[in-house]
Design a protein that fits this description.
This protein is mainly beta. It has 2 domains: 140 residues; 281 residues, no CATH class. Helix content is 11%, strand content 38%. The chain has 2 helices and 35 strands. The protein has a 25-stranded parallel β-sheet that branches. Helix 1 runs antiparallel to helix 2. The longest helix has 38 residues. It starts with a helix and ends with a strand.
Length: 435
């Protein structure tokens, strides 16, 4: 009789306990993956060692993804005997998952025990339950490309300078590409031209990749090469519609003016704070200007420009974004950066606008061209979805991306692929429960 009762009562409770243990494991793996995404956590960060068991103990507040997972494993579940967390990198993907390659993944193992009431007399004193769950972070987006011309115009990209343009990321052109320069263009791994391709310059155009057989020069319209420079590899025919990598973003809201017609032309140093700059920002002095971290909403402008820099002082700003718009009676205007000082800018490394340095409101437009000819170290994306960009910077482009209707190159630059997405926002990271 006790055995029969045990089969119905004790095993029924064990089944219920199994469901709760699995829920605790799922919550732990999901929470750890979400923490890793939000905090750019990875193996070797925050005291985490890849593939090593982390035994859960009371840690509040958590300082890494595994500790975060532990809190969820034990927060509201059954009487947990033990909870262990493991973290792995992309080089060691889960062997039992197919079609998924997480950039980072975590495994939660949760165990619990329950005393048997009726099966106890049959020698089965306790029921031991365990469950596993796997969570991970996935990256998707434009990891291989960093230059986008969105217009279908022929040409949408022109290059006429004497400096070299080197990219370890792809060039995407929804229109045509015209090259008349004496400098070289080196791209990795592809140049995709949806319109006409015309090369009449003395510089070389080359596409490289590893392996080289993956290098691709694709032309959707006519192909004409009559300059003295070489073009390699041989082009292939085919059209590729270019998608705006930031099209799903929601622009920040524009509140009341914090500053009006801001202008600096002094020889001393000054510091600016985030806020709404109605009438734009104009800098022409010889003094250095420091931009504190945050979002600068540049609403309208002065003269013909919204953000105008023609000074000789240095501009510095870490974790900043400049949102170019025209609202509440102000007209949107282009940026003009032509000063002789050094620029040291970096975009925000997390949050909604991660990687965006200059963000032109997609709901506005203006006929004049945005101009950038700065020097120094600048990282982040230049996003002008409805207007044109003239780029002639001579400094380090580092992890930098350009997205505009049309792009004109007259200078030199080295554009490097942003594999993490934190510097240009080109790669989007998401967290999910995988198993």
């Amino acid at each position: 009789m006790f055995s029969a009762l045990g089969l119905s009562v004790d095993l029924g409770w064990a089944y219920f306990l199994k469901q709760r243990v699995q829920t605790a494991a799922d919550a732990a793996a999901s929470a750890a993956a979400k923490y890793a995404m939000d905090h750019s956590d990875a193996c070797g960060v925050g005291g985490v060692t890849c593939g090593t068991t982390y035994t859960c103990a009371g840690v509040t507040p958590p300082t890494n993804s595994l500790q975060e997972g532990c809190l969820f494993a034990t927060a509201d579940g059954p009487p947990v005997l033990s909870a262990n967390m493991y973290e792995y990198d992309a080089a060691h993907p889960p062997s039992n998952l197919s079609g998924v390659t997480p950039s980072m993944w975590v495994q939660a193992t949760v165990s619990a025990s329950s005393p048997n009431v009726f099966l106890f007399v049959s020698g089965f004193k306790t029921s031991s339950i365990s469950a596993n769950a796997i969570g991970g972070t996935m990256q998707a987006g434009s990891a291989g490309n960093c230059i986008y011309a969105l217009s279908a115009a022929n040409p949408a990209i022109t290059a006429s300078g004497s400096g070299n343009i080197t990219t370890t990321c792809g060039i995407m052109d929804n229109g045509g590409l015209t090259f008349t320069g004496s400098g070289n263009i080196d791209a990795d791994p592809q140049i995709l031209v949806n319109g006409n391709f015309k090369s009449s310059g003395s510089g070389n155009i080359s596409v490289t990749a590893t392996p080289q057989s993956n290098a691709r020069l694709q032309v959707g319209g006519t192909y004409k090469q009559n300059g003295s420079g070489n073009v390699s590899p041989a082009y292939t025919s085919g059209t590729t519609a270019i998608t705006d990598p930031f099209a799903t973003l929601t622009p920040p809201s524009v509140g009341a003016c914090n500053f009006t017609n801001y202008s600096f032309s002094g020889s001393g140093n000054t510091t600016l704070n985030p806020g709404v700059y109605c009438g734009g920002i104009k800098i022409s002095g010889s003094g250095n200007v420091t931009f504190n971290s945050g979002v600068y909403i540049v609403n309208g402008g002065q003269g013909a420009n919204s953000f105008a820099y023609s000074g000789s002082g240095n501009l510095t700003g870490a974790n900043v974004m400049f949102f170019i718009t025209g609202q509440n009676g102000y007209s949107a205007m282009p940026i003009q950066i032509s000063g002789s000082g050094n620029l040291t800018f970096s975009a925000q490394s997390s949050g909604t606008y991660m990687g965006l340095l200059f963000y032109q409101d997609p709901t506005v437009t203006y006929g004049a061209t945005n101009t950038y000819s700065g020097s120094g170290n600048v990282t982040g994306s230049f996003y002008f979805p409805t207007t044109n960009l003239s780029y002639s910077g001579s400094g380090n482009a580092l992890a930098q991306a350009l997205v505009a209707q049309t792009i004109s190159f007259t200078g030199s630059g080295n554009f490097t692929r942003d594999l993490t997405g934190k510097l240009t926002g080109m790669v989007k990271t998401s967290a999910a429960l995988l198993q």
